[in-house]
Design a protein that fits this description.
By secondary structure, the protein is of the alpha/beta class. It folds into 2 domains: about 100 residues, Alpha-Beta Complex (Aspartate Aminotransferase, domain 1), CATH 3.90.1150; about 230 residues, Type I PLP-dependent aspartate aminotransferase-like (Major domain) (Aspartate Aminotransferase, domain 2, 3-Layer(aba) Sandwich). The strands form 3 sheets. A 7-stranded mixed sheet has the order 2-8-7-6-5-3-4, sandwiched between helices. Strands 9-10-12 form a 3-stranded antiparallel sheet, covered by helices on one side. Helix 1 packs antiparallel against helix 8. It starts with about 30 loop residues before the first strand and ends with a helix. The structure holds pyridoxal-5'-phosphate.
Length: about 375
């Protein structure tokens, strides 16, 4: 075979709007302390694992058949978990909230349409937007990473986006939005408004959910996931709550049988064990607040966080700090905003390792 036959991506007839784009790429490095993708550090108990194995065993003998295409039992279970008077016909589930968001963009975005988000925020929103040939419009958050309601309304009125993303608590900053900001954005938006509440369970007590705004807002969608507080990132289960008509729209674009029977069974087991799985949230919140206080005590800046991670800085050479931490076995994240790093909240032991690694990085002169 000659070298001329070697094909690289740039030789392929890929869509022009995907040329030069980078894929999502949080490094998956095998180090002792992984604090870079906001997972819950506490694994399921052996009892839960046994229940999962039993549920998978029950499904195994029926794997020659397609799963329930509409995941009726799971959606009813998720609705019961969410409360707010929701029922299964107002809840939709897919393989992670990423797939839920992709389906929203397939149905409400697309060529000639736009989606607007307030950055810095979750990097997958623009990636999924562009993947569905929707144009991404970036609006700015304030210096404290909040969203100014007046400016948000102005940006929405200027661009008239088909989809608006509001992430609360926001990733990578940890910032939760007051409900009036969401209400005013929703009132101004001509299209769909997606409130990404992936980290809602970690919000400080009293933080209201956008679920309370669903009645009377048929163009509002609230997304959640089992990947973070629920400690089930490997299961790939995300979900949303919205008006039943929104779910009818998603049925038009979803793949048939998109949620495997094994995934549906695992998610039902997770729901049955919700007390155990969510039982670590208080511990993680306390560890988060302690981490913010410790970083500030060291003279660093740390953003207030309603999530299970902390954005901290500011570093003129954050790469040097990231590498100094990695050299000590601690993997953190270099998120969107330059000069900042993001650390996911791990176990008490892992956070002690993070603090020790930070001390080491400071002594070395990296931080
Ligand atoms: C982690 C995260 C998600 C979760 O994605 P899944 O596909 O459910 O694992 C969604 N939104 C934000 C803002 C996140 O940080």
């Amino acid at each position: 075979m000659g070298a001329a036959l070697v094909t690289s991506l740039s030789d392929l007839p890929i869509r022009g709007d995907l040329r030069g784009r980078s894929p999502y790429g949080a490094p998956q490095i095998d180090v002792p302390v992984r604090l870079n993708t906001n997972e819950n550090p506490y694994p399921p108990s052996p009892e839960l694992a046994d229940d999962l194995a039993r549920a998978v065993r029950e499904q195994a003998v029926g794997l020659n058949r397609y799963p329930d295409r509409d995941a009726v039992e799971l959606r009813a279970g998720l609705a019961g978990f969410l409360g707010h008077g929701l029922s299964g016909d107002r809840v939709w589930a897919a393989n992670g909230s990423n797939e839920v968001i992709q389906q929203i963009l397939q149905a409400f975005g697309g060529p000639g349409r736009t989606a607007l988000g307030f950055e810095p925020s979750y990097s997958m929103h623009p990636i999924l937007t562009r993947g569905t040939a929707t144009e991404w419009i970036s609006a700015a958050r304030e210096d404290d990473f909040g969203i100014d309601a007046g400016k948000a309304v102005a940006a929405i009125e200027e661009h008239r986006p088909d989809v608006v993303f509001l992430t609360s608590p926001n990733n990578p900053t940890g910032t939760a939005l007051p409900l009036p900001v969401i209400e005013r954005a929703a009132a101004a938006a001509p299209g769909m408004v997606v409130v990404d509440e992936a980290y809602f369970e970690f919000a400080r007590t009293g933080t209201p959910s956008a679920l309370t705004l669903l009645p009377g807002n048929p163009r509002l969608i609230v997304t959640r996931t089992m990947s973070k507080a629920f400690a089930m990132a490997g299961t790939r289960l995300g979900y949303l709550a919205a008006h039943p008509a929104v779910i009818e729209a998603l049925l038009l674009v979803r793949l048939p049988y998109h949620l495997s029977s094994l995934t549906q069974a695992a998610a039902l087991v997770a729901l049955a064990h919700r007390a155990e799985l969510l039982g670590t949230v208080d511990r993680l919140r306390a560890e988060r607040d302690a981490t913010v206080a410790w970083l500030r005590g060291k003279g660093l800046t740390a953003a207030d966080s309603d999530a299970n991670f902390v954005l901290f800085g500011r570093f003129s050479d954050r790469r040097a700090v990231w590498e100094a931490l990695l050299a000590r076995g601690v993997l953190v994240r270099e998120p969107g905003p330059p000069e900042w790093l993001r650390v996911s909240i791990g176990t008490g032991e892992e956070m002690a390792a993070f603090r020790a690694a930070m001390e080491g990085a400071v002594m070395e002169g990296a931080a």
